[in-house]
Specification:
Elements: H1 2-10, H2 14-30, H3 34-50, H4 54-76, H5 85-113, H6 116-125, H7 130-159, H8 166-171, H9 173-201, H10 220-242
Helix pairs in contact: 2-3, 2-5, 2-10, 3-4, 3-5, 3-10, 4-5, 6-7, 7-9
């Protein structure tokens, strides 16, 4: 219990992680330079280290490193075999994925470090309308069930004899999307109804001030890390403009 509380004190506030998400998104839209991508990755690394999520960090680091090196090799190294159009297309896909990875890392941090009560309490302290808070809470709660729903649908497709090999996906992509998306949408509607009922039972419509079990507040390290992150991104853009 003491260890879990110590880890909680070391992690960043939920609002800080959301703010970092917003900052990374803004600067990635402003610049496609590798400095911005690397800085975004290292910001997400620090958030995962704060929560002691070393196993998840290693997986993301290996994936990011491989994609970053491949894209660098395609765009900068004069290797004849990599000049083929197919490798260049794969390089573009690697570029897109490596820019998504920091957001996935921060999402993993929220999933592992924060529970729904902490998220709800943090959003209430932002003075957001209850409708928005409920929507965000349902969204975060639904993420955990998406993986289970996906594998359930895949198993059902196998029982129906649907070809799930690479050949079937390549030659019949629209059918694959239909077989996956339609059940996922119906399942999402059913899950949303269940979450809404559960929220009503827990008194989400109560207008009185709710008490919180968790000590949710922005600490000095949250402010300091946010300021350092903004300064680092501004400097990375300034360096690019001066080149």
């Amino acid at each position: 219990m003491t260890t879990n509380r110590a880890i909680k004190n070391q992690t960043f506030d939920f609002r800080t992680i959301l703010f970092l998400d917003l900052i990374i998104m803004v600067f990635m839209l402003l610049s496609g330079k590798p400095e911005v991508t690397l800085l975004s990755f290292f910001v997400a690394v620090i958030v995962l280290i704060a929560g002691r999520q070393y196993y998840i960090l290693i997986r993301y680091a290996i994936t990011f490193g491989v994609l970053y090196f491949y894209y660098y090799a395609v765009t900068h190294m004069q290797i004849p075999i990599l000049r083929a159009p197919i490798f260049f297309i794969i390089g573009i896909i690697a570029f897109i994925i490596q820019r998504i990875i920091p957001f996935m890392m921060l999402g993993s941090a929220i999933k592992e470090q924060k529970n729904l009560s902490e998220i709800t309490t943090a959003l209430e302290k932002c003075r957001l309308p209850k409708g928005i808070i409920l929507s965000i809470a349902v969204m975060f709660r639904h993420f955990t069930s998406l993986k289970e729903d996906f594998f359930t649908i895949v198993e059902a497709m196998k029982l129906k004899g649907i070809d799930l090999s690479w050949k079937g996906i390549i030659f019949h992509p629209l059918k694959m999307l239909e077989y996956l998306l339609v059940p996922m949408l119906f399942r999402s509607l059913h899950t949303a109804e269940e979450f809404s009922c559960a929220a009503l039972v827990k008194g989400i419509e109560n207008t009185n001030c709710r008490s919180a079990y968790f000590d949710v507040k922005i600490r000095k390290k949250d402010i300091l890390f946010s300021v350092i992150t903004i300064i680092a991104f501004i400097l990375s853009l300034t360096i690019n403009f001066l080149r």
